[in-house]
Amino acid sequence: MHIHILGICGTFMGGLALIARQMGHRVSGSDQNVYPPMSTQLAEQGIELMSDYKAENLDCKPDLVIIGNAMSRGNPEVEAVLNRGMAYVSGPQWLSEHVLQHKWVLGVAGTHGKTTTTSMLSWILEYQGFKPGFLIGGIPLNFGISARLGESDFFVIEADEYDSAFFDKRSKFVHYRPRTAILNNLEFDHADIFDDLDAIKKQFHHLVRTVPGEGLIIAPQHEDNIADVLEMGCWTPVQKTAIDDDALWRAELIKQDGSEFEVLFDQIPQGVLHWPLTGRHNVYNALAAIAAARHIGILPGDAIKALARFKNVKRRMEVIARVDGMTLYDDFAHHPTAIKMTLDGLRKQVGDEKIIAIVEPRSNTMRMGIHTQSLAQSLAEADIAIIYQPENLNWDLSALQQYADNIEIHSKLDDIIARLKKEKATGAHAVLMSNGSFGGIYQRLRDEL
């Protein structure tokens, strides 16, 4: 079968393309921005890429078109699909019907930590020889790829609450029907499609409704919004996680930065994890992954051994350069809570050393100015917080400065680079935070510093 994918360079859709290719299908696709690393990953697998959306991209007459959720009516290729009466489907629906059927699906949902936790869980299964399939919204460094079909009955998936397609406004994760479900956390996000927090809770409850009674739900002990979702109705056993507190799964911190902790299950020690990751959020991610692995029969001690060799995910506090004492990190954090957790973990690791946070407000929610006060407050652990104000942003970032005195606003990347040059010799830790390309600043900083 020839499958053509609209929005193929997105992480999710690119992952679908890789899986479809591994299943033996001919795969092509188009995207507005065809660029590495996804374009390279796809081309290496023999997938034909077309730049920009055009009706003539469909002249190859594919048997099926998979339409990404970034596509909308008015897109010339979408209009051509509809006008020509071509068969089309959303990515999550195709995945559900052609890959996840008859699989033991382990789904990881939540506002934060999905990609990292999915990567941890996939690696635990891999380390134990399960050879799972997976689809992850990033590139785990232990694998070097974002998706694969796998060779077992287990499939680990990042379960995103964003909508499925312009013709299917349900959250993606409703299609996945996990037997093991991790609910990491729940906050207001995706303001472009959700009116309020209650609307997101409703979608999460739709997910809960799909988990079988013989399945398992794993959630933090002190996440009130998750508790609200479960109180709407839950027909599945729930196991809770906590740090230095009472829960079925508990982590006792040995080092406060989260780089070493003991894991206890039902008050019985299971082992000590010493690893390069930091932050309480990653401790919670690890506990959830260990609990999920136990559900399919992997002993916690073996899961701990696997995580000791976990290399994290590309763009998750990834060190991209060390220049004259300055360390540059690339981090995907794009929500105030994620920014706060990342900087808190780094502060506990580096002590009094200078931290500089450089933030591009790029997500739809951030661009709408929804999180003004919480964004400013999330940067408290940074000695200097540099916020990029591009020309097309919908609000004036100077509003942030009324909530914090460490914030600088810059409208030009050249100015940000010049500012960091002044700090180069101070031994600072500079964390670049964006869920996009940040105007190519990463390579420029490596070159110019």
TrEMBL record:
Organism expressing this protein natively: Methylomarinum roseum
Record has ATP-binding as a keyword: yes
Protein task: Reutilizes the intact tripeptide L-alanyl-gamma-D-glutamyl-meso-diaminopimelate by linking it to UDP-N-acetylmuramate.
Q: Example GO biological process term?
A: regulation of cell shape
Q: Which UniProt keywords apply?
A: ATP-binding, Cell cycle, Cell division, Cell shape, Cell wall biogenesis/degradation, Ligase, Magnesium, Nucleotide-binding, Peptidoglycan synthesis
| The protein's required cofactors | Mg(2+)
The EC class name is ligase
- Which InterPro entries would you find in this protein's record? Mpl (IPR005757), Mur-like_cat_sf (IPR036565), Mur_ligase_C (IPR004101), Mur_ligase_C_dom_sf (IPR036615), Mur_ligase_cen (IPR013221), Mur_ligase_N (IPR000713), MurCDEF_pg_biosynth (IPR050061)
Q: Which residues form the Mur ligase C-terminal domain?
A: 315-433
Q: Which residues form the Mur ligase N-terminal catalytic domain?
A: 2-101
Q: Which family does it belong to?
A: Belongs to the MurCDEF family. Mpl subfamily.
Ranges where the Mur ligase central domain occurs? 108-293
GO MF annotations in UniProt: ATP binding; UDP-N-acetylmuramate-L-alanyl-gamma-D-glutamyl-meso-2,6-diaminoheptanedioate ligase activity
Q: What is this protein called?
A: UDP-N-acetylmuramate--L-alanyl-gamma-D-glutamyl-meso-2,6-diaminoheptandioate ligase
Q: Does the keyword Cell wall biogenesis/degradation apply?
A: yes
Q: Name one Pfam family in it.
A: Mur_ligase_C
Q: Where are the transmembrane segments?
A: none
Q: Where does ATP bind?
A: G110, T111, H112, G113, K114, T115, T116
In which pathway is this protein known to take part? Answer: Cell wall biogenesis; peptidoglycan recycling
Q: Which reaction does this enzyme catalyse, per its entry?
A: UDP-N-acetyl-alpha-D-muramate + L-alanyl-gamma-D-glutamyl-meso-2,6-diaminopimelate + ATP = UDP-N-acetyl-alpha-D-muramoyl-L-alanyl-gamma-D-glutamyl-meso-2,6-diaminopimelate + ADP + phosphate + H(+)
Which EC number(s) does UniProt give? Answer: 6.3.2.45
